[in-house]
Amino acid sequence: MREHVRVRRSFSVKYRMPWSNRWQTASTRDVSASGLSFILPKGLCMAGLPVEIEVDSPVASFRSKARVARTRRTPQGKEIGIAFGAVNAEAKQKLERYLYLAHRAS
To answer: pTM score > 0.85 for this model?
Structure first.
């Protein structure tokens, strides 16, 4: 059972793998207060891998050290699920409220 509501929302995120100084951009597939998922078009990625993520959602912006929680192959590439590390309490609360209201509206 999930601890947080997960909704399908698409907005831009930036991520950086541990071996790179370069930020990459992706669009989210779904989002919760504890993480998100997006398609990684190419490259190496496995569960447990640390990743840095920069989120700029409609209601909150934050940067978090995170980890890859899951991976799944899709026709578009590899879908990866990211679990956030520490997130600013105010940003997390805004994101939780936004996602709760989005879930109720759908």
So the answer is: yes
